[in-house]
Specification:
It comes from Streptomyces antnestii. By secondary structure, the protein is an alpha/beta fold. Helix content is 26%, strand content 22%. Strands 2-6-7-8 form a four-stranded mixed sheet, sandwiched between helices. A four-stranded mixed sheet has the order 5-4-3-19.
């Protein structure tokens, strides 16, 4: 979740973030192919899903007066996705009935202790291990102990046990929103979100890269700078740049009327890196701009609003993207996504409260690969 401005969750976090600012230009690490674990593969999001996992926001202490409104947003997203694939909503047992009523009969609501809605980060990353799906628990730490997460830290263990999915504990601390892959061995990641004392103290980028390759079966890591300390995630890649196919990426770009800031400079830095890089198979990148809306035209309120379209979610036969209220920009972004996913329905969903809280549709969903559940 890489918002245009500091997020509301930044103000609510319990610990102070580590110094802000963009890192220097990054390049690909050494040994692009020789440390990848054999038999492991992290698939692309556009591959077949068994189901989508989501999480019912539980804490008044995090959302305050916005809690009922963010629950409306989450229910709206869940109902929309359930038109295309099976959706499982995790909810605290005492909130299960209310969540089920809000989400409707097409969404399965299961009793499981959670704290907040960010399933992308709390649910394990799934890999294929010699063809069998395995969940990699990334040791969720509340984005470096910035928010209450006692229950969310256990989601990996409890959810995988419930569904009988093998669990592997990662040797590092990260979140699902940290990673963007093409399914063919290439991984995009922001240095700010993982080479950081608040997640992996004392670890160098080279060591973290080696651990990522061994744990996820990645062949080549492309490092982008990101932004430190200005949002709770330290600038996850999933709001900055996304694959639509191997070798093709959509890059979040600021609206022309937006003054330059750390987020737009992060986008410029990512463009500079990607324009010179190649993927795991040696292909150069085709970079497509995905412009943000005009902040004066959006329906959401506050300076915290996350106005990136890049935080979309690719589900079975569909793509889910935000509708911000700037009709021209919403239409343009939808057209770009339709061009790159021509065989999928592009579904726009209003998520103003989710966006005001520091995230988007991708942040609130997590796909399990596999044959679709009937």
């Amino acid at each position: 979740m890489s918002p245009l401005h500091p997020t509301r969750r930044t103000a609510l976090r319990t610990l102070t973030g580590i110094g802000a600012g963009i890192l220097g230009a990054s390049a690909c690490g050494p040994g692009d192919q020789d440390t990848a674990a054999k038999g492991l593969r992290m698939g692309a999001e556009w591959e077949s899903h068994a189901r989508t996992f989501m999480s019912w926001p539980a804490l008044q202490s995090v959302w305050g007066e916005d809690l009922p409104y963010v629950r409306e947003d989450i229910a709206r997203v869940a109902r929309a996705i359930a038109e295309y694939e099976y959706v499982v909503m995790m909810a605290r047992p005492d909130q299960q009935r209310a969540a089920q009523k809000a989400c409707g009969r097409d969404v399965e609501v299961i009793p499981l202790e959670v704290d907040d809605l960010w399933a992308r980060d709390t649910v394990p990353v799934f890999v294929e291990d010699d063809g069998k799906v395995t969940g990699v628990d990334l040791n969720f730490s509340g984005w470096g102990n910035k928010q209450t997460h006692a229950n969310d830290a256990q989601v990996g263990r409890t959810l995988l046990a419930k569904y009988g999915i093998p669990r592997r504990k990662a040797p590092l601390v990260a979140e699902g929103g940290s990673f963007e892959t093409d399914g063919e061995g290439t991984l995009l990641i922001t240095e700010s979100s993982i080479v950081n004392e608040n997640r992996n103290p004392g670890k160098s980028r080279d060591r973290i890269e080696a651990e990522i390759k061994q744990t996820l079966g990645i062949k080549k890591v492309i490092w982008l700078a990101g932004v430190r300390g200005e949002d709770i995630t330290d600038a996850h890649v999933d709001s900055l740049v996304r694959f639509t196919a191997p070798g093709v990426v959509l890059l979040d770009t600021a609206h022309p009327d937006t003054p330059p800031d750390s987020w737009s400079r992060s986008s410029d830095q990512a463009r500079a890196v990607l324009s010179k890089a190649t993927d795991a198979k040696g292909r150069p990148f085709e970079i497509i701009d995905l412009p943000q809306p005009d902040l004066y035209e959006i329906t959401g309120e506050g300076d915290d609003f996350v106005s990136t379209y890049a935080n979309f979610y690719v589900a079975n036969d569909s793509v889910f993207m935000p509708k911000f209220g700037d009709r021209k920009a919403d239409k343009r972004a939808r057209s770009i996504l339709q061009e790159h996913f021509p065989k999928r329905d592009i579904v726009q969903v209003q998520i103003d409260t989710i966006a005001s809280g520091g995230g988007g549709i991708h942040c609130s969903t997590h796909d399990e690969p596999g044959k679709p559940v009937d």
